[in-house]
Amino acid sequence: MEDRLRLAILDMNAGRPNQGMRCIRDIAAMYSSAFDIDEFDVRSKNELPDLSYDVYISSGGPGNPLEGDGIWDKAWYNLIGDIWEHNLSNQFGKKYMFFICHSFQMACNFFELGTLAPRKSTSFGIMPVHLTKFGENDPIFGSLPDPMYAVDSRDFQLIQPDLDVFRMHGAKILALEKIRSHVEYERAIMAVRFSDEFIGTQFHPEADPIGMKIHFEKPEIRETVIKNFGQAKYDTMMDHIDDPDKIELTHNTILPLFIENAMDTIFEQNAVLV
Fold first, then answer.
1. What are the tens digits of pLDDT across the range 50-94?
2. Backbone angles phi, psi at 155, to 5 degrees
3. Residue 1 — pLDDT band, cuts 50, 70, 90?
4. CA–CA distance, 193 with 183 (Å, rounded to integer)
5. Does residue 4 register a pLDDT over 60?
6. Overall number of domains in the chain
7. Does residue 263 belong to any structural domain of this protein?
8. CATH code, domain carrying 38
9. Residue 21 included in any domain
10. Could you tell me the sign of the dihedral formed by the alpha carbons of 101, 59, 41, 214, in that order?
11. What is the residue range of 174's domain?
């Protein structure tokens, strides 16, 4: 019988209730026959996993990705650096990490991939995301159509990529935000493969139709969205929640393939070493 693997979920929500963590838990639970799964409250309890895990998923969260309390954020950055160095130093036994939204922004800041800047206005809704040539050939993103659709909710964005740094790390831009022909702003980077083992998205690949409905049908949330973005925006978003080729396809593809690819690679390498 093969040894069980270990998966760490890093909760970056600072104690705020949200549907994202439920979605991540549900996806991870699909692989509970292969993984022991542990969860860490990074920002509220300063909890972080050690290097004994095989796969890490770091969630989205609120606030400015360039700010922390000097404790949890420093520890989080140290963990990312330690895992990265571990992978550089080991041919086998590499560790896999996925960054979502807030965590993606922090990871891009850590690797100095470009300019992390506040948006002129909040990006919010179910948005088209366009694949680059690297995305089309990526083992995960290559399984999705162009454009794909994802839940986007952000006040910050990665722009002006430092291509020299990308080349130094071997990183690739996998996806860009929707084309906005009516404005001159630079399109934000929506997904990056930092390495064979590290990947992240600006959007929320974990989001599912059930969670979106539960969240946005709450009267207080509905009123806030309509006040900030208008009735038409709210109605369009709700109309597309159940489309099987939009967020449901993204939900069923990205994180599951990330976990499956990591699991298959680890088991293949372990078989070679036996």
1. 999 999 999 999 989 999 999 999 999 999 999 999 999 999 999
2. -110, -10
3. very low
4. 27
5. yes
6. 1
7. yes
8. 3.40.50.880
9. yes
10. positive
11. 5-207+250-273
